[in-house]
Design goal:
By secondary structure, the chain is of the alpha/beta class. The protein has two domains: 137 residues, Aspartate Aminotransferase, domain 1, CATH 3.90.1150; 273 residues, Aspartate Aminotransferase, domain 2. Helices cover 37% and strands 16% of the residues. It is built from 15 helices and 15 strands. The strands form three sheets. Strands 4-10-9-8-7-5-6 form a seven-stranded mixed sheet, sandwiched between helices. The longest helix is centred in the first third of the chain and has 18 residues. The chain is globular and about 65 Å long. The protein starts with 17 loop residues before the first helix and ends with a helix. The relative contact order is 0.16. It binds pyridoxal-5'-phosphate. Pyridoxal-5'-phosphate binds next to helix 5.
């Protein structure tokens, strides 16, 4: 094996079928705006913004140049007891973009780290206000919060949980909100189901005043585009507030325009206590995550801390200069090109397009919100996931990048997509679906 320069063996790829990939690799070697480029020069239209993250499109000049300038000016600067201006500036800009009251930002390097950071901040807050018995963390079935032990513990994807032993103690889960029995092919939010939030009252009944925080994705992306029922998030907010429980929205996917608003919190008009983000924060050009924190949460922790360090948590690369530069340039692009408004404008025609896939072979449900759609296929008997994987491969072969989880195909095109791009993505997908066995 040693010395095989072109071997694919050494890279143990994440969340992948390594053996299958290495027999039939799918590589990208370039990207620009709406497209990837394969080694043989084929253009592949990006139906998923990379991995829900390249919201402003690929290799955008202002972002590329900002990173290049920063790399030459100052490559790294520690954030423990030291700082550099761009991290502070980015935190200010993110706080301004987030709902009123969320006015501090803790930086990390990924969505998973953002989730673990948010869970720790929630625990620190409860201790700081004299509620140290509140150590329980509540997630939701079918939730995805990354791959740290905290995120896996509050997450609700069986395949991601079952290999890793007992996980964090003191974690419980709300029931999920997906209910095909109440209707399929629903456009946007469905009317019924707000009362599913009352499941939290059940958990409060069980655990009393030991719950520190509840974390949910306002719209679950990675588990197959699960749109919250109307009124559900509002109800969750009311119940958490009533019982002194912090509410965390995991906006790693929904942050930065995906639903046609700066955040899902703004889109739904529900303000949580903490917001996790990553992905679109830097247009994925440099890894970065963050936690937006309400003033009262931040202030309580600082006020209760003895002289010295207030939060015993942080990463070598928190507020990394390259990521901060990329983040600032990304926010400029979102703003100057009005990309969040653009996503809102395009979400209705996109909804019409994707619901036009109804009736194609194996399609059993279609869900959508903002510039996101989930197309659910009937699983092959005895081979869950195989049908969607075939669609994924055929799409790649014919020039379209999809994302699949189980038998659900997710679309989340870059916010720069023109109507013609959206039409092309859905038409290419239709062609693929017509040929999938
Ligand atoms: C809602 C949510 N939280 C957390 C994560 C984890 O982010 P990362 O892969 O950057 O660690 C993801 C990734 O898709 C996500 O969708």
């Amino acid at each position: 094996m040693h010395g095989r320069v072109n071997s694919l063996d050494a890279f143990w790829m994440p969340f992948s079928n390594n053996r299958a990939f290495k027999e039939h690799p799918r590589l990208f070697v370039g990207a620009k705006d709406m497209h990837y480029v394969t080694p043989d020069g084929r253009q592949v239209i990006d139906g998923t913004s990379g991995l829900w993250c390249v919201n402003a499109g690929h290799c955008r000049a202002p972002i590329v140049e900002a990173i290049q300038r920063q790399a030459a000016e100052m490559d790294f600067g520690p954030s423990f007891h030291l700082g550099h201006p761009k991290a502070f500036e980015l935190a200010r800009r993110v706080a301004d973009l987030f709902p009123e009251g969320i006015d501090h930002v803790f930086f990390c390097n990924s969505g998973s780290e953002a989730v673990d950071s948010a869970l720790k901040i929630a625990l620190a807050y409860q201790r700081a206000i004299g509620q140290g018995q509140r150590t329980r963390l509540i997630g939701r079935e079918r939730g995805y919060h990354g791959v740290g032990f905290g995120g896996v513990s509050v997450g609700g994807m069986v395949a991601n949980r079952r290999h890793w032993g007992p996980l964090l103690p003191g974690v419980d889960h709300l029931c999920h909100t997906h209910d095909p029995a109440s209707g399929t092919f629903v456009r946007g939010q469905r009317e019924s189901g707000a009362d599913l939030a009352d499941d939290l009252e059940r958990l409060v009944g069980l655990h009393g005043d030991t719950i520190a925080a509840v974390i949910v994705e306002p719209m679950a992306g990675s588990t197959g585009v699960l749109v919250p029922p109307k009124g559900y998030l509002e109800r969750l907010r009311a119940i958490t507030s009533k019982h002194g429980i912090l509410l965390i929205f995991d906006e790693v996917i929904t942050g930065f325009g995906r639903l046609g608003a700066p955040t899902a919190s703004a889109y739904f008009g529900v303000t949580p206590d903490l917001i996790t983000c990553a992905k679109g924060l830097t247009n994925a050009a440099v890894p970065m995550g963050g936690v937006g924190v309400k003033g009262e949460v931040h202030d309580a922790i600082l006020e209760a801390a003895p002289p010295g360090i207030d939060l015993f948590h942080g990463y070598t690369y928190s507020g990394h200069p390259l990521a901060s530069a990329a983040g600032l340039a990304t926010l400029d692009v979102y703003e100057s090109e009005g990309l969040f408004d653009r996503a809102r404008t395009h979400s209705r025609p996109f909804e019409d397009l994707v619901h036009g896939l109804k009736g194609l072979p194996h399609v059993i449900d279609i869900r959508n919100l903002g510039l996101v759609a989930g197309i659910e296929l009937e699983p092959r008997p005895g081979a869950p996931g195989a049908r969607a994987m075939e669609a994924f491969q055929k799409a790649y072969d014919t020039g379209l990048l999809l994302r699949v989880t189980g038998d659900i195909i997710a679309l989340s095109p870059p916010l720069i997509a023109e109507p013609s791009h959206l039409t092309e993505i859905v038409e290419r997908l239709a062609d693929v679906l017509r040929t999938v066995a």
